[in-house]
Amino acid sequence: MAAITAPPPPPPASTSYRLPRRWSLTRIAAASSSPSSRFRPSSSRRPSSSTSLFAAGSSGGGGEILHVSPPSPPANPPGAPVYVTLPADAVGPGGRVARRRAMGASLAALAAAGVAGIAFELWWGVVERQGPGEYDWAGYLDLAAMARRHGLRVRAILAFHQCGAGPHDPLWIPLPQWVVEEMDKVPDLSYTNRYQQRNKEYISLGCDSLPVLKGRSPMQAYSDFMRSFRNTFEDYLGAIVTEVQVGMGPGGELRYPSCPTEKLSQSGSSSELGEFQCYDKFMQASLSAHAQILGIQKWGSGGSIGTDGSQQNLEESSFFRADGGYWDTPYGRFFLEWYSGMLVLHGERLCMIADTIFSGTGVTISGKVAGIHWHYYTCAHPSELTAGYYNTLLRDGYLPIAQMFAKYKAALCCGCFDLRDTKKTNPESSPEGTLRQLVGAAKMCNLPLNGENSVTRLDDASLNQVIRSSRLYSGRSSGTSFSFNYVRMNKSLFEFHNWSRFTKFVRQMSDARTFLARLDVRRGQQYLSSMSVVWVVSRACAYT
Q1: Around Cβ 216, how many Cβ atoms within 10 Å?
Q2: CA 108 – CA 119 distance, rounded (Å)
Q3: What whole-number distance in Å separates Cα of residue 147 and Cα of residue 278?
Q4: How confident is the model at residue 176 (pLDDT cuts 50, 70, 90)?
Q5: Burial (Cβ within 10 Å: 0-12, 13-18, ≥19) of residue 478
Q6: Are strands 190-192 and 198-203 parallel, antiparallel or unpaired?
Q7: Tell me: the pLDDT tens digits for 333-363?
Q8: Inter-residue contact 531 to 493 (CB < 8 Å)
Q9: Would you report the helix, strand and coil content of the chain in percent, each value rounded to 5?
Q10: Which of 129, 195, 489, 544 has the fewest CB atoms found within 10 Å of its own CB?
């Protein structure tokens, strides 16, 4: 292995501490109690600045490096706190933290940069993989303990969807095997389009309340999962785990899988209108019952009318075309109100369960809405309609969702903060228009807002766009808040040029008052420069 050269030492100071060049690997972590040890409310959320130097006592990896915890942040930091979403496989399929040394060093670097906390998915397919009601939280408890040691808050994302496109995907995390087996036995548990193509990313919301999972309904399974999480993480809730984001659909978002999740990030996805996902027998039964209640049975069979034609050109589709499309007829309004209403009802069921389970724990619950912007500058907004958002030139489809979230005091999470309109290359798309409408709905309902980037990149243009987009939530009412999740951490984040951009971004988002690029501890204590932390991370990665 090629020799790794240490970075330049920090600027001269009587209290500085230089990294010994002979040490081969670091463990930037405190010797701590087990993950299940109790976090005492009387202690600070971050280790105090008076904490003495410490070193890990873990086996392997050679020598250790002394490190000082950053000072405690203010209770309500000014500006917009920045969180960083961990890699999807931070906890592997076996339920244990992956690349543990690199993870510990990375969390130390994030804390040094003034990041408020981390977010990570707790995958249903990992936690309940062994069987119904058998939960393994060990890896996620370990992550929470690591975050606590480094003074980072945690946003827990309860992920009831699959990750990746299939077994060939390096980040493949399917639903629990026992759930997949039930979906194989009863294919209608999967979302289904008019071509009878099945999507197994997430269980169809048409069977939310039916006992289709070995005697339990999906809602009961989600509720049991949340309750087990609450009981297991009881000592962390409110102090370290400050927010629980409830997965509500494919990609964790409240939407239908009108377009497979992996295609949403592809360049050609903007041309697809998407497919209505209402052709499994449970959704068909719901549509029929809805039509019967309204006394128009003929509209309740066979799914959506007029979705023939091209899925690339909306003017070739009888349903979506601007002039005379079904979307703007009594039938279209009937169908779209039912289709979008089912999605809102699904979200409300989950919010109601989460609100009941986490009441009194001190955590905020949240849900995520997708930024479907491909056809925002058209009359019908077809890609939004097929995703379940009844948002057209004539109707606001996001306000009902925001109102539902407000009913349960849930925060709203949405992406598109890093995207700009490109009228020359894609005149129908408007991520900025979509975001303005989502933020407007959140402000009208006085919702806390969590912004996210849609593409993982650290160029100046994208980060500056995030800062500009964040200003949309300025002037918010008392009691609401705004924060930003950077999605997601990877090795390139810690490259020197990217790290410089990222720390500058955190400073700008936080108005410079919570930025800790250098751990400068007064009263004769030592410090470790932020760039030295990055060097430490790169070395940890090399040995993982």
Answers
A1: 16
A2: 15
A3: 42
A4: very high
A5: exposed
A6: antiparallel
A7: 999 999 999 999 999 999 999 999 999 999 9
A8: no
A9: 35, 10, 50
A10: 195
Task: Give 529's strand partners.
Answer: 518
CB atoms within 10 A of CB 424: 6
Bridge partners for 243 per DSSP: 155, 364
Spatial contact of 106 and 99, defined as CB atoms under 8 Å apart: no
What pLDDT score does 541 carry?
Answer: 54
| Placement of tokens 């890699």 in the chain | 87
Tell me if 341 sits within 8 A of 401, measured CB to CB. Answer: no
**Which H or E run includes 509?**
helix 496-509
Distances (CA, A) of 114 to 346, 455, 465: 37, 22, 20
CA–CA distance, 392 with 397 (Å, rounded to integer): 7
pLDDT per residue as tens digits for the range 280-332:
999 999 999 999 999 999 999 888 888 776 566 777 789 999 999 999 999 99
Q: Among candidates 108, 110, 104, 105, which has minimal Cα distance to 85?
A: 110
For 79, other C-beta atoms within 10 Å of its C-beta total: 19
57-86 pLDDT per residue, tens: 333 333 333 334 444 443 445 689 999 999
As to burial, measured by CB atoms within 10 angstroms (0-12 exposed, 13-18 middle, 19+ buried), residue 522 is: exposed
Q: How far is CA 71 from CA 39, 114, 538, in A?
A: 18, 10, 24
The Cα–Cα gap between 109 and 112 comes to 5
CA distance 501 to 423: 27
Domains of the chain with CATH codes: 82-302+319-541 (3.20.20.80)
Q: Active-site residue among 243, 272, 384, 452?
A: 452
253 catalytic? Reply is: yes
Q: What are the structure tokens assigned to 486, written together?
A: 């950077």
> For residue 82, what is the enclosing H or E element?
strand 82-85
Give one DSSP letter per residue of 208-254, joined into a string: TTS-TBTTB-HHHHHHHHHHHHHHHTTTTBTTTEEEEEEP-SGGGBS
Structure tokens given for 380: 């019908």
Inter-CA distances, 270 with 259, 276, 372, 382, 400, Å: 10, 16, 9, 11, 25
Q: Is 368 helix (H, G, I), strand (E, B) or coil?
A: strand
Half-sphere exposure of 433 (CA within 13 A, CB side): 19
Q: Of 121, 253, 275, 432, which is the active-site residue? A: 253
Tokens 């939310």 belong to residue: 208
Q: Read off the tokens for 514.
A: 């919570």
Q: What is the DSSP string of 121-137?
A: EEEHHHHTTTSTT----
- 292 within 8 A of 334, measured Cβ to Cβ: no
Contacts of 381 (CB under 8 A, 6+ apart): 375, 389, 391, 392, 393, 397
